[in-house]
Amino acid sequence: MIEANNVADRRRIAVAAAHLRNATAEWYEADKANITWYTDNNIGSFIRRIRARFTSDIQKDQWYAELHQLKQTPGQSVDNYANKF
Fold first, then answer.
1. Is 45 helix (H, G, I), strand (E, B) or coil?
2. Is residue 17 part of a domain?
3. What is the pLDDT of residues 12-29, one digit of tens each?
4. Does residue 13 contact residue 20 with C-beta atoms inside 8 Å?
5. Stretch 48-61: mean pLDDT
6. Does residue 72 fall inside a structural domain?
7. Which band of pLDDT confidence, cut at 50, 70 and 90, is reported for residue 7?
8. pLDDT (0 to 100) of residue 33
9. Residue 2 maps to a domain
10. CB 65 within 8 A of CB 75
11. Strand partners, 45
12. Number of domains making up the chain
């Protein structure tokens, strides 16, 4: 949503936070002082921190297994294959 709507970098955290509800909204209010950026390239990023808080080890293991089983099928375009990531 953020990327699709071309939200400016400086507004991405605020836009994302406005869509949080219940436990995620409570988490954000408690942790927002530690969030310095939206993207996942540093320890203060919104993306990294919300994933760390709300993604279970089981889910991470499942994603890892799915990634390693992913193979391009005959006739499948590179773009279609890449979109599976």
1. strand
2. yes
3. 999 999 999 999 999 999
4. no
5. 95
6. yes
7. confident
8. 97
9. no
10. no
11. 37
12. 1
pTM value? Answer: 0.70
Q: In the chain, helix, strand, coil percent, each to 5?
A: 60, 0, 40
Phi-psi sector, 16: left (phi>0), alpha (psi -120 to 50), beta: alpha
Q: What is the DSSP letter of 10?
A: G
Q: Distance between CA atoms of 5 and 38, rounded to whole angstroms?
A: 15
Q: Distance between CA 49 and CA 20 in Å, rounded?
A: 14
What is the extent of the structural domain holding 17? 9-83
pLDDT of residue 48: 94
In a domain, 3, yes or no: no
Give the Cα separation of 78 and 72 in Å (integer).
8
Could you tell me the pLDDT band of residue 41, with boundaries at 50, 70 and 90?
Answer: confident
**Could you tell me the CA-to-CA distances from 36 to 16, 23, 49, 83 in Å, in that order?**
13, 20, 10, 29
Q: Six-digit token pair at 83?
A: 């979109």
